[in-house]
Write a structure and sequence with these properties.
The protein is mainly α. The chain has one domain. Helices cover about 60% and strands about 0% of the residues. It has two helices and no strands. It starts with 14 loop residues before the first helix and ends with a helix. About 0% of the residues are buried.
């Protein structure tokens, strides 16, 4: 799953509409988004070490 852009100007729909379309609560989306960003940060650290 990809995350929606953080800036409102960069996305075509609101987070609420996106979550409704894929049957996901907004809280669950934001929790996923937080985990996604943490994972990406760890990946970048690992890549820089290799």
């Amino acid at each position: 799953m990809k995350v929606a852009p953080k800036k409102r100007q960069d996305r075509l729909f609101s987070i609420a509409i996106i979550c409704e379309a894929i049957s996901l609560k907004r809280d669950a989306y934001y929790k996923f988004h937080k985990r996604y960003l943490a994972k990406k940060e760890v990946e970048q650290i690992v890549i820089s070490l290799v």
